[in-house]
Amino acid sequence: MNEATIELSVNAAARREADNPRSLVAAIGKPLKLESGSTLAPLRIAYQTYGVLNRDRSNAVLVCHALTGDQHVANVHPVTGKQGWWSTMVGPGRPVDTDRFFVICSNVVGGCMGTTGPASTDPATGEPYGLSLPLVTIRDMVDAQALLLDHLGIPDLFCAVGGSMGGMQVLQWAARHPDRVFSALPIATAAKHSAQNIAFHEVGRQAITADPDWRDGRYLLEGSIPRKGLAVARMAAHITYLSEPALQTKFGRNLQDRDRRTFGFDADFQIESYLRHQGASFVERFDANSYLYVTRAMDYFDLGADHGGSLAAAFKGTKTRFCVASFTSDWLFPTEGARQVVHALNAAAANVSFVEIATDKGHDAFLLDVPELFATTKGFLDAAAKVRGL
Amino acid sequence: MNEATIELSVNAAARREADNPRSLVAAIGKPLKLESGSTLAPLRIAYQTYGVLNRDRSNAVLVCHALTGDQHVANVHPVTGKQGWWSTMVGPGRPVDTDRFFVICSNVVGGCMGTTGPASTDPATGEPYGLSLPLVTIRDMVDAQALLLDHLGIPDLFCAVGGSMGGMQVLQWAARHPDRVFSALPIATAAKHSAQNIAFHEVGRQAITADPDWRDGRYLLEGSIPRKGLAVARMAAHITYLSEPALQTKFGRNLQDRDRRTFGFDADFQIESYLRHQGASFVERFDANSYLYVTRAMDYFDLGADHGGSLAAAFKGTKTRFCVASFTSDWLFPTEGARQVVHALNAAAANVSFVEIATDKGHDAFLLDVPELFATTKGFLDAAAKVRGL
Predict the structure, then answer these.
(1) Number of domains comprising chain A
(2) Fewest beta carbons less than 10 Å away: which of A49, A91, A163, A372?
(3) Does A292 touch chain B (CB under 8 A)?
(4) Catalytic (active site) residue A72
(5) For residues A56 and A7, is the Cβ–Cβ distance under 8 A?
(6) If you measure CA to CA, which chain A residue comes closest to B332?
(7) Which of A202, A228, A235 shows the shortest C-beta gap to B203?
(8) What is the ipTM of this complex?
(9) Which GO terms describe its biological process (chains A, B) (predicted)?
(10) What tens digit of pLDDT does each residue of A89-111 get?
């Protein structure tokens, strides 16, 4: 394929997407060498694109999704029928402006929205992988994305951006493929997962594996779904995404039926009903084994440890421009973790700015309508685009 | 019974206890009128005592236990074989000095260590109550304790003291039976349960009821135990008892097997292994239905709402001496909730002191070796004892 053909095919695919929220799927010919030492092949990567790749192929923005996110950033979600998870951030005239940038988002390896994951069919057996899929890490997710860029003929990223686990991927991109990331915007994230966060993930995994319908991970083969366990995992996690003040403001002690306690175990309080709904709707769109794999990938993330215990070493010699953003009320990824990243980047003499955004919206703020985050993102991308001549 | 006989029998019982950690059980003749409108009869209350009731019966200290605590405050626990949960606080020469005070602790109504609860036999059917036991509240727990005092011939308490749900009972005692509480020491608690705390409880309840071995609450009849669900509930709750810095210091990202990740779902991290142990050991000593009942009682607690929306009204005209204590790193019952209690007590012109203790031990600090808490307790009790002429 010559350059013009690549450009044409990528953009034609993008235009098809506008009419059809089903994802593109790249069949990657090259095996993915995993951090565990195993190899994953064949590898399929499901992705969405928005906007048009320019002639220089210099305007690609990779959006990295979070634990339970997926590639449906700014289109109607094919399962839920809801707007994409970052449709306020990504689109024409939005902070990540699809009139200027070619935006790519791929489902992570280990995920369940089309990219190879535990629910995918293992061609060697003709059955779903289940737990026979090798464990994947954040590094493996990023290496899979790099293979996707190779596949698309995109040499490097103008920007890698994402929140939470997406932010981990952004940091990993900058450390692992420094020459392929012009700018990086990690949001509400950290360079390693904390003990408390590992603990919450472990509770979720225990809830799933405690469900007899999980069937030792073989539920797809045996025709069951560990709905209850997965719902409990989601409920526990969901609490950590919101701040205590936000819960207080949104729900407080409000009853479902005003002034009436049932003196029973129904969902008397609105917060109970809300959580139950979160759990029940999650199981309709997410695979339980994927939840095990992707939480494990986050637990394993420790970029400093991967570089001899020095986070600064991970970014040695970096030319990437960084903007690190955190939220005051985020107790899952508190500002302290962002500061550690910034200190390491400073120690590596990197070009870095740091914004702590005041909000009571908690960790979920990166997904919500937070004007300061939009302004930060737009400002950072505009400045970087100027330097890059976009 | 004349007074001397009562004194003798109470103290003889206390002496028997020293040799035998099995609890005394009071069969309460009077039905317990519950907040729900139901009546509970017969009512049995299991309790422990330490020290000797004085001739004036003026030195009784009621220790109120927390969610998963019980009456075994300062003796070897009959199930776990471990020292009582507050043996550092209660005993000869300890801050709650059993050489001076007659200490009582009773298992709460709804509990599972001998007091009437869902695992008790319903005399009407000859089967365990299960979910047919009416729901109980913090007020019901306190009214049951008041009936126990009547039974023991103890007119009033020199002090009511407890942490977490124990502190809720202390506040409820002062509001409900103001003439029977000379002094009150609520620790690490609040006058109402927050939305976040209700949310965590709901996750625990969902984990239990999702377990097929729960059998719609009839597991005792059907010979099963919802071990996995109860363990998950305990694990989720346990995270909230510790502070993030304490988890970081105690476990951080330490691996079980130094420097070796298994790239699987075993308990690679020490924090995972610790949580699994907490879950597994809890199911050996606690009843799943009791967990539902007692968490629900905490959720329902809102002392201000019970008094027309004014917490100050709950304490109107109080003569009780209060000391309110909180811990800086307690995110389950943060200092803010303690402050609200203190403000209400001030508005009610109560005699109140307030101590916020700096510690990184989180909510569990009330159970741990925290010298400032011991000093606060001893100082408050000594001063109150002086006023009372003890």
Answers:
(1) 2
(2) A372
(3) yes
(4) no
(5) no
(6) A244
(7) A235
(8) 0.92
(9) homoserine metabolic process; methionine biosynthetic process
(10) 999 999 999 999 999 999 999 99
